[in-house]
Specification:
Number of strands: 0
Distance between the termini: 36 Å
Structural class: mainly alpha
Mean pLDDT: 92
Strand content: under 5%
Order of helices and strands: HHHH
Number of helices: 4
């Protein structure tokens, strides 16, 4: 099974990450690590170290945020599909 990443290291806007994080109960220090990874272009290891986190904890949070981004993308695709097929 291939895992598709919907979020890319250093390629995401702060606004997008903020919206996705609003759907979680992620602690502030982990959120900082997530911003450092997705917005600041740090590896997960670097972002974890910068924020005093365990690599595994940040890695799990990054994975969960990707799952949320995947669900949002699928909802968007469904909305576009429904809109184009209800004429």
């Amino acid at each position: 099974m291939t895992i598709i990443k919907y979020l890319s290291k250093g390629q995401e806007s702060r606004k997008k990450v903020t919206i996705l994080l609003s759907l979680t109960s992620t602690k502030e220090n982990i959120q900082k690590g997530i911003y450092d990874h997705f917005v600041g272009n740090f590896t997960i290891s670097q972002a974890a170290m910068l924020n005093g986190l365990k690599h595994n904890n940040l890695s799990v949070a990054v994975g969960e945020l990707n799952k949320i981004a995947e669900a949002m993308e699928k909802l968007f695709e469904l909305k576009v599909y429904d809109k184009s097929h209800t004429k």
